[in-house]
Design a protein that fits this description.
Length: about 190
């Protein structure tokens, strides 16, 4: 990943990234070559989201993991005073480990007080990707995927409101399972 010229390896964000292991983010190192700054991410034993789900659909569990990972990632960035615009939400830069834990790439962008309009656009693009990859046999995935897209399309998009919806949907699913548990059928005995 090549950085813009305005970013130097000496800035606050780069020091925070290189000296700390941010939960939910890939470890990154910056190197300058031929006058350009490059970021190298440690993706050992991980695969990008777009490759993992190239041949299979996204189910409810993975959509929910993605959504909660975005929220936790943004919370982590706030704790480290890093600009939320730096989180990369493109499927080819979102990685999953073997346990399907979600990891993001972060690119230093500068002033943490700037508003995140680009981030909203990236989240909308991620929600469009999810819609295209939905498991249409999974009703909960369809409900969450379309709600994610609808809310991301709104002018006043709120990740907090979307997370609240996902939690309510999860609680509803759990209540349904308690009320109507899937009964195991006994195999008939043949004499």
């Amino acid at each position: 990943f090549q950085a813009g010229e305005e970013i130097t390896g000496e800035n606050y964000e780069m020091k925070m990234l290189e000296n700390n292991r941010l939960p939910g983010f890939l470890y990154v190192q910056a190197r300058r070559m031929d006058g350009n700054l490059y970021f190298y991410y440690d993706i050992t034993a991980m695969q990008p989201l777009d490759k993992v789900f190239q041949q299979k659909p996204l189910n409810y569990d993975i959509i929910q993991k993605l959504l909660f990972a975005v929220k936790e990632g943004l919370d982590c960035l706030a704790r480290y005073l890093l600009n939320p615009k730096g989180i990369i939400l493109e499927p080819e830069y979102i990685y999953l480990d073997q346990e399907e834990r979600v990891f993001f790439c972060y690119r230093p962008v500068g002033n943490p007080s700037e508003e995140g309009e680009e981030q909203t656009k990236e989240f909308l693009n991620l929600s469009e990707y999810i819609l295209k990859k939905l498991d249409h046999d999974d009703g909960s995935a369809v409900t969450l995927g379309y709600e994610l897209y609808n809310q991301a399309s709104e002018e006043n998009f709120s990740l907090t409101r979307l997370i609240r919806f996902a939690v309510e949907l999860q609680e509803k699913e759990e209540r349904q399972k308690r009320i109507h548990p899937v009964e195991e059928r006994e195999e008939p005995e043949y004499i």
